[in-house]
Amino acid sequence: MGQIRWLMVAVLMSLFALSGARELKNKHQGHLAFYNHTLATILVEYASAVYMSDLTELFTWTCSRCNDLTEGFEIIELIVDVQHCLQGFVGVAKDLNAIVIAFRGTQEHSIQNWIEDLYWKQLDLNYPGMPDAMVHHGFYSAYHNTTIRPGVLSSVRRAMELYGDLDIMVTGHSMGGAMAAFCGLDLTVNHEAKNLQVMTFGQPRIGNAAFALRYTQLVPNTIRVTNEHDIVPHLPPYYPFFPKKTYHHVPREVWLHSTGFSILFYTCEKVCDGSGEDPTCSRSVIGNSVSDHLEYYGVRLGGETPGTCRIVMDPRLAANGTQDLEGNLILSRNPSTPIVKMRAEPSIPSESV
Fold it and tell me: What are phi and psi of 231, to 5 degrees?
């Protein structure tokens, strides 16, 4: 019964998305983000690494996803909101000369249940200081009303004190992409961040057209990468029949899709227009794939054990952190201070939370 309902909803949404209804166009005047393929392949590795549940390996940047293009990254703070099943980190990538902020996507429920829930999320919160701009409270609260935001802001200030006025790059996949967008907006509006760029992967829609327009004016250096038939960027649904009442993506989309003929196929990276809802990009196809959501640029995204918030940590790592009464954890370090290799003594057991 659940599968039938899922199929009916998917078909209904696809019909709306492909309909030829008259649409409201968000006309963005001014600068649009420039897409850099090399930077995208680097940031997607950070968006992948933040899913790791072994906090010791993540904090020391020795995890299986902490190498290749991100080798040498130095974490300043690792923030784990156990109460809300959220995770993020802030650190310095010296090769990029930038502070990198990454947010984990959803872990609390199975990915399919979370996606099904996206169909019904309503625009139910007026974004502070933006007339007519509305967002969904769940997306907004995941960043603004948890321990994630104060941890991020504190670590960005520390990084600036240690390294000076670096660029800031904010990234995330899926729900983590939504949090990255809100973080980029927050840093720009409330903390006067300069030289800030947001790049997300498989991000859902987070607000209406008024929000998307104002966001683009404030955070123009935003790239939102979508992949083939990834279902999540199609959600919550965009209804062209009700353009002023529906969700609307922020620009600028870059759509990864296969093209070619016969046995000759290659991946095309299409840089889309400034509307946020370019009908020739991912909206030109039916969004019906979970597998396309879980891999971008050949990099696996998502947790090692989806549907669980389990974390693992060497007990000795507690000396680097603070924990509140709800069990929420912040691990901090001064990048100039080396961390003892926690795996050097396997006889000491790890703790699971």
Answer: -75, -30
Q: Please provide residue 251's backbone torsions phi and psi, each rounded to the nearest 5 degrees.
A: -80, 170
294: amino acid identity, one letter:
L
Query: Which parts of the chain sit beneath pLDDT 70?
Result: 1-30, 108-109, 262, 306-308, 335-353
From residue 250, alpha-carbon distances to 17, 181, 265, 343 in Å are 17, 9, 29, 43
Contact at 8 Å (CB) between 334 and 77?
no
Distances (CA, A) of 224 to 165, 203, 273: 25, 7, 12
Q: Give the three-state DSSP class for 323.
A: strand
- 282: DSSP letter: G
Virtual torsion, Cα 258, 259, 263, 266, nearest 10 deg: -60
DSSP run (H or E) holding 338? none
Cis peptide preceding 252, ω within 30 of 0: yes
Nearest to 286 by CA among 5, 7, 2, 27: 7
Interatomic CA distance for residues 74 and 105, integer angstroms? 21
pTM score, whole prediction: 0.88
The two three-digit tokens of residue 205, written as one number:
């829609």
Residues constituting the chain: 353
CA distances (Å), origin 33, targets 176, 216, 217: 20, 10, 11
* Residue 185, phi then psi, degrees to nearest 5: -65, -45
Cβ(353)–Cβ(82) under 8 Å? yes
173 membership: H or E segment, kind and range: strand 167-173
| 309-350 per-position pLDDT tens digit | 777 888 888 788 898 888 899 999 876 655 544 443 443 444
